[in-house]
Amino acid sequence: MKSKVIATMNHMMPSKLMPSKWGGRGSTIPLLRIATDPLLRIATDPRAWVFAGAAAAAGGRALGRWLTRFELRGRTVLITGGTRGLGLELARQAGSAGARVAICGRDADTLARARESLSQMGAAVLATTCDVTDRNQVAELIRFVQAGFGHIDVLINNAGMVEVGPVEAMTAVDFERDMATNFWGPLNAILAVLPHMRSRGEGRIVNIASIGGKLSVPHLLPYSSSKFALVGLSEGLRAELRASGILVTTVCPGLMRTGSPRHATFKGRHDAEYTWFNLADNFPLLSMDVERAARRILRAVRHGNSHVVLSLPAKVADKVHGLFPGLTSDALGLANRLLPSTESREHGVEGQHCRPVVSVPWLGARSDRVATQHNQTN
Ligand SMILES: NC(=O)c1ccc[n+]([C@@H]2O[C@H](COP(=O)([O-])OP(=O)(O)OC[C@H]3O[C@@H](n4cnc5c(N)ncnc54)[C@H](OP(=O)(O)O)[C@@H]3O)[C@@H](O)[C@H]2O)c1
Given 90, 253, 277, 338, which is the most exposed site by the fewest CB atoms within 10 A? Predict the structure, then answer.
C-alpha cells in the first residue's frame, strides 16, 4: 500500500526537476548537479560520518586539554606518603618540573632520607611526619605546608598500605586498618584542603587507588575493599567539584616496581604469600616501571584527566571486567586455587622479614635494585 502511494507521487513530479538517480531522465541543471553530487555522496557515506565524528572528538579533546592545562612550575604539590616508592618518584618528577613539593610519612628516618634526596636535586621541599589516618595530624600537615609555601595547588593522596593473605587469615581489624589508610587517609586530606581550594577557585586532587579498586583480587580483600571505596569517593568528588575549578583524577595502577613488597604485610602462610606477591610485583610483563607510572600521573594532573589506568595488564583487566564481570570473577576463582591456603589468623609479617620459598636470582637482584632506588631499605 505504502509503495503504491510513493510510486504515484513520483509519477506526478515533473521529470525535469528530478535528479536521474531518483528516477527522472537526468535533466536537472548540470552545474548544480556537479556541485551537489560529490557532497551528497560524502554526506551519505557512513565512513565520512565516522571520520567526521572522530575528528570532532579529537578536536574537542585537544581544546579541552588546552583549556584545562595546568603547569607544575611554581605550584605547590603535597604528596602523602612521598617518602618512598611511587610517592617519592612523584615528588622527584614534580620537583624537576619546578614545583615546590611537600611530603609526609610516618617513619622519620625514611622521611629524612627522602627530603635529603629531593634537596640535592635542587627542589624546594617541605617534609614532616604525619599519619594520614589521624584527622588532627592531617589538619596540622595542611597548616604546616600552607605556612611554608602559602597554599596547596595539588594534593596527591598516595599514602597506602597492603595486607596480603586469604580471607581466613584476616580479621575485622585488618579491614579497618586498610580502610583507615587507603580510604579515610585520602578523605581526611581532601576535607582539610577543600575549603582553601574552593576559596581560590582552583586546584587538583589526585587519588592513587588501584586496579584492585575496580576488580577485587583474591588474597587482597581488605586492600581491594578500601580501594573500591576510594574509587567511589574520587569519581563522585570529580562530578561535584568540576564546576568549582577543582579537578579530581582517579588513578588505578596495576602492579608497579616500587619495591613496596618489603613493607607490605603478609598473613597466613606468609613466606608463600610473600613469594607470589614479590614475583608478580617484579615480573617485567606484569609490572610497570614506577618512573613511567609517575610521568603518566603528572601528565594527567597537567591535563586534568578524570581517570588513569596504568599498565597494559591492568587496562585489559579493567575492560574485560567491565564487560564480563562474572567471567573475570570466576577466572580469579581459578587463580585463587593456586594461592596458599591457611587456617591461621596469627599476626602479619612484614615482607622484609619473610623468606621467599622460591628464589629467582635475577628477579631478586632487580627487586633489591628497585628497593634501593626508591628508598625502601631501612
Ligand atoms: N606498588 C604497586 O604495585 C601498587 C599498585 C597499585 C596501587 N598502588 C598504590 O600506590 C600507592 C603507592 O604505592 P607504593 O608501592 O609506592 O607504596 P610504598 O612503597 O609502600 O609507599 C607507601 C608510602 O605511604 C606512606 N604511608 C603508609 N601509611 C601511611 C600513613 N598511615 N600515614 C602517612 N603515610 C603513610 C609510607 O611511609 P611510612 O610507612 O613511613 O608511613 C610510604 O611513604 C599506594 O596507595 C598503593 O596502594 C601501588
Answer: 338
